[in-house]
Amino acid sequence: MKGFTLIENLVMVSVLSVLLILVIPFQARVRNRYNLEMAVWQIHSEINHLKYQAVKDSVPYRFCIFSRGYIIEKYDVSSSGWKKVDQKTLSGLWLEANNSPVFYPEGTVSNLATITIANSAGKYRLTVAISGRIKIIRLDGDSD
Fold first, then answer.
1. Three-class SS of residue 2?
2. Which of 13, 20, 64, 144 can pair with 71 through a Cys bridge, CB separation 3.0 to 4.6 Å?
3. How far apart are CA 14 and CA 11, in angstroms?
């Protein structure tokens, strides 16, 4: 007779169940860490883009952080105020900033800013200097 016995099948299902129980939490941690790192690089690239966009358009841009995302604003000369250009929500993340940096056509940045991005996988801090340089630090361990 060919095939597997009932006991062999039950043992195999049990082994697979144990493996799944071990792998699922690990996979969730990896996904959370990936989401955190992608958000850090998304914000980093948006800030770099705004620096160059301000010079290119000869108009100031502002980067505003709120608890679940960020808003990009462009200075409107006609209304002497800020006009929203874009808004992004980053799900599963918590964001905080001490300032909203303004990028000027001269290539400078006012309002030095420290932006904290966190989730269950860890925490990063992005610091925007007057020169426009962005420093990224991983707060729960090693630096990036």
1. coil
2. 64
3. 5
Beta strands in the chain (DSSP E): 61-66, 69-76, 81-89, 94-97, 102-103, 109-110, 113-119, 122-128, 134-138
Helices (H), 58-68: none
The helix/strand/coil state of 36 is helix
140 closest CA partner among 20, 43, 33: 33
User: Is residue 1 very low, low, confident or very high in pLDDT (cuts 50, 70, 90)?
Assistant: low
The residue with tokens 């462009």 is 74
42-74 residue pLDDT tens: 999 999 999 999 999 999 999 999 999 999 999
Kindly report, residue by residue over 86-140, the tens digit of the pLDDT. Answer: 999 999 999 999 999 999 999 899 888 999 999 999 999 999 998 889 999 999 7
Q: What is the distance between the alpha carbons of residues 50 and 61, in angstroms, rounded to a whole number?
A: 7
CATH classification for the domain delimited by 6-138, as one of 3.40.50.300, 3.30.420.40, 3.80.30.20, 3.55.40.10: 3.55.40.10
At 9 the three-state DSSP class reads: helix
Q: What is the DSSP letter of 3?
A: S
